[in-house]
Specification:
single chain, Lyase, Ornithine Decarboxylase, Chain A, domain 1, TIM Barrel, about 450 residues, lyase, disordered C terminus, PLP-binding_barrel, globular, diaminopimelate decarboxylase activity, pyridoxal phosphate, binds pyridoxal-5'-phosphate
């Protein structure tokens, strides 16, 4: 049983009898049962990642709120809920998913720059733990809605600490020019802003500086900043009891070094460790990314010498990360490559009519042929949740594997079903478009 690639965790992936398996289940057998392409997640790996983080943070009074947008399949949420995870949500839809997956409202935190009145009301009615407000305008909105519901909302202020997360520009959120959070220098006005807001209580501060951050250094800077602000606001009479330290802990997709949860713990200890605050973190990617892969079949290999295009049945609508963030995903054959086989260079592409529908350029990998199955590694985060039906493609199945068993946890949503969601306007259904109807 060889390790297929560094990017498939060896605790759950292995070649057995020449076929790639996940927790002992053959990926070829799943493909046979559900068709391709599909996502498959390992419950065992989800638990492993959750426990690794929980163990590293055990010295602190800390809650782990999984950022549901990374993977909001209810079966995935339920595995993490059983481990004790709460949820960080960014929409009313995620609220519904979290609550229906066994995550109690008391473990739900609501973030996001544009929560609507309906979403805020739903969250308050459900009795969630905390709303992270991202602007003074939103504080006023929350206060009004809480007042209408006769409730007092527990609110943390999301601060923009103005630090560089040293990650991809599209996933940086903690710089002054990003849309997220309240600038630290605007806090001077806080006393005025909250005067008269009787239906909310500022219970803490929150931050989230970006995603796919690979070293503890930006966290050290940001947590240090939030510690300063906590002391300052306490000095001004605000009862800051909770600090939400956000997520963004990176994972290796290619050759990056593993993000260290121990370094994170050290950054927490030296910055906010002695403030006596209840802490929380909001990891998304780091819990689910390498627990999931996208399995696809090679439709054909197009010879365009000197180029070889491996055309998959998966496309950018199923996994948009390469097109959107130029991200790397290891691509591994499901059939174990013959030892010592000569690698071939492919452009690995999907069938969609966009040049950006490309999973990998000039990728050296074992030779593949039409009909072969391949795995796109590290696809458990921001994979299925960012998928679409572009080019009128089906939404693909999601499968959960747990100790030798597998279950389809989202079935394929076919184009027939999707067309059933649509209606022709009744005027278009008129037998003859004579032009006289409007005058009738
Ligand atoms: C997206 C997001 C997270 C999770 O980010 P990861 O990089 O997946 O850990 C956490 N908190 C907030 C507010 C977010 O928007």
């Amino acid at each position: 049983m060889d390790r297929p690639t560094r990017r498939l965790p060896s605790s759950v992936f292995a070649y057995e009898a020449g076929v790639l398996t996940l927790e002992g289940v053959s990926l070829a057998a799943i493909a046979e049962a559900v068709g391709t392409p599909f996502y498959v997640y390992s419950a065992g790996r989800l638990r492993e990642r959750y426990r690794a983080l929980a163990t590293a943070l055990a010295p602190f009074d800390v809650d782990i709120h999984f950022a549901a947008k990374a993977n909001s399949n209810r079966a995935v949420l339920a595995v993490l809920a059983a481990e004790g995870a709460g949820a960080d949500i960014v929409s009313g839809g995620e609220l519904a998913r979290a609550l229906s997956s066994g995550i109690p409202a008391a473990k739900v935190v609501f973030s996001g720059v544009g929560k609507t009145e309906d979403e805020i009301a739903a969250a308050l009615r459900a009795g969630i733990h905390q709303i992270n407000a991202e602007s003074y305008e939103e504080l006023h909105l929350i206060d009004r809605i809480a007042g209408e519901l006769g409730l007092v909302a527990e609110v943390a202020l999301r601060i923009n600490p103005d630090v560089d997360a040293e990650t991809h520009a599209k996933i940086t959120t903690g710089k002054k020019d990003n849309k997220f959070g309240i600038d630290a220098d605007r806090l001077a006005r806080l006393d005025n802003e909250v005067k008269g807001l009787a239906n909310l209580k500022i219970v803490g501060l929150a931050m989230h500086i970006g995603s796919q951050i690979l070293s503890a250094k930006p966290f050290l800077a940001a947590y240090g900043r939030i510690a300063e602000l906590t002391r300052e606001l306490r000095g001004r009479g605000f009862d800051i009891q909770r600090l939400d330290l956000g997520g963004g802990f990176g994972v290796p997709y290619e050759n990056e070094l593993e993000f260290s949860f121990d370094d994170l713990a050290a950054a927490i200890r030296t910055t906010v460790g002695d403030l006596g605050c209840r802490l929380s973190v909001e990891p998304g990617r780091s819990l689910v990314a390498d627990a999931g892969v996208l399995v696809s079949r090679v439709t054909l290999v197009k010879d365009a010498s000197p180029m070889q295009f491996a055309v998959l049945d998966a496309a950018m609508n199923d996994l948009v990360r390469p097109a959107m963030y130029d991200s790397h995903h290891d691509i591994v054959p499901v059939k174990e490559p013959v030892a010592g086989v000569q690698a071939v260079e492919y452009d690995v592409v999907g069938p969609i009519c966009e040049s950006s529908d490309t999973f990998a350029k000039r990728r050296k990998m074992p030779p593949v042929a039409a009909g072969d199955l391949v795995v796109l590694a590290t696809a458990g985060a921001y994979g299925a949740t960012m998928s679409s039906t572009y080019n009128s493609r089906a939404l693909i199945p999601e499968v959960l594997v747990d100790a030798g068993r597998f279950a389809v946890v989202r079935r394929r949503v076919t184009i027939e079903e999707q067309m059933g969601w649509e209606r022709l306007p009744d005027w278009a259904a008129a037998p003859a478009l004579s032009g006289s109807r409007a005058a009738e």
